[in-house]
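Side project, low priority. Logging it here so it doesn't get lost.
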Amino acid sequence: MCSLLEGAHRNREPVWWGEEMLKIKRGNRMITLRRFKEIAGILGCLFFLFACSSQPPRIEGVRLRLIYAQKEGKIEESLSLFVAPADDDGFEDLEELYLIHDESQLYWKLTRQDWLSIEEGENSPGALRPPPGEPLLEGLAAGEAEAPPVVGGGEKNASPPSSQGPSRRVWIGSHRIQMYPSGPLPRGRYRIILRDKGGEQVERSVGLDAPLTPVSAFPQLILDRGSYRIVSSYPKNDLVVYDQDLRIIRTVPLSHAQGAFRDLGFPGSARAVALWAEDPDRGIAALTSIQGLP
């Protein structure tokens, strides 16, 4: 009887069952259970790595401006930095933006809670100052572990506008990067680092060649009943329009040195204005103090 059973087994597919002895026939090759588990484990790890691998972010544009602003009768400097980011893992994957001046060992850090998002086509990041209360970022000596505390409150826009279309570019950054407590900002080369949540990062270098002293007189905005007049040697001038809570509601390019407000199409909620004057070739701009509409 045993010989008959053995003969029957010999005529069937040669498969043996056992903890370490399962053999699967593939042509003329035999794979043991242990080897099968090893191959499956390797394939699983490769799938996990490919599925979870993150791509580093990209910087597709940089705009750096030195801004002169009126404050309590004095002219102070700040930097306006905006970058156009791209990340295959999505905008929500972006986490930190650094501006670093190696020579002076200073850096500024922006997080998602700090930076502004501006959609190109609605407002140019070079021609818009954020509402009062945007966090003021102070200079830090390189190597310090934490960013300075946020100063002020106000609303922050940490995500791109929902109306963004495929052809619109979103810029993130800040108009109020300053020295602490005050003083001129260093000139020369800056490094910009954009980092995502996975620790991947991209770096760009940009120069700030603005003169140490202003080459143009500070612009003036003069308001009268229903009209305005500007005195400015800057090639580009915009009126920044605020509502009663001093939130920016519009920027209006000026083609004439004087005119009537009714010709500018101000919205009904307009309550105050300031003059933004810019020299894009020199990378400098000036912002006058805010004045209530007469």
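Brief comment: The chain has three domains: 2-52, 58-208, 220-292.
Revisit when time allows.
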